[in-house]
Amino acid sequence: MFIFGISGAVGRLLARKLVERGDEVGGLVRRDEQRAELETEGAGAYVGELADLTADALAVMVRGCDAVVYTAGSNGGDWKVTTAIDGDGVLKALEATGLAGGRRFALVSVLPEAGRGERLGRARESYYAVKKLVEVTVSESLLDWLILRPSLLVDRAGSGAIALGAAQPCDEIARDDVAATLAELLHEPRIRRQILELNQGSTPITTAVRANIR
Question: Which Pfam families does its entry note (predicted)?
């Protein structure tokens, strides 16, 4: 498995859960010390700036991986960063997966309703617009893609229980539960070419994932 955003909150949690399952995990980080930290946890990493790398260069990194997961995100900051990470970065990773002969690509996106009722600034509006356009491109890919839209992310211990399906209300969910759900989804090849929304809930993660097999 290869994780873009492996040094981020969700990506780091996902890497740990996949390593615990016995998966070989790699990713892309920006600094040597991040790579060293990941190595102590059983994951490997390349060092580089995503914005500076071509799809061909990324293809070398992801070749041979069972799945490529994109968890990197700008969190709605400067529009240039949003375009580079939430937009162009996803497109390059998607292209690289195809160039490397990979089949499975998973994208962590955002619930469209997450900002409803708020006075969003231009940067935040751009963030949602870029996320939507990227989802369109991923959904038109010939790969076995998966788009996961989590609700508002919070830092707390995961409950192990979620609500997962084609449509969910916007509430909140622990990053730990997002990572656990992703790990389960990546190990269920029958879930493919779907957009799933994720929220806190009362259904055990394994059960919720299996309920979405089509």
Answer: NAD_binding_10
**Does the model's pTM come out above 0.70?**
yes
For the chain, the straight-line distance linking the first and the last C-alpha, in angstroms and rounded, comes to 23
Q: Provide the residue type at 163 as one letter.
A: A
> What are 201-204's contacts with CB under 8 Å, separation 24+?
201/161, 201/162, 201/163, 201/164, 202/161, 202/163, 203/161, 203/162, 203/163, 203/164, 204/160, 204/161
What digits encode the pLDDT tens for the residues 11-25?
999 999 999 999 999
Q: What are phi and psi of 98, to 5 degrees?
A: -65, -45
Asked if residues 187 and 67 have their Cβ atoms less than 8 Å apart, the reply is: no
Beta carbons within 10 angstroms of residue 56's beta carbon: 12
Residues 41/15, Cβ–Cβ less than 8 Å: yes
Cβ-count burial of 90 within 10 angstroms (0-12 exposed, 13-18 middle, 19+ buried)? buried
- Structure tokens, 116: 């409803």
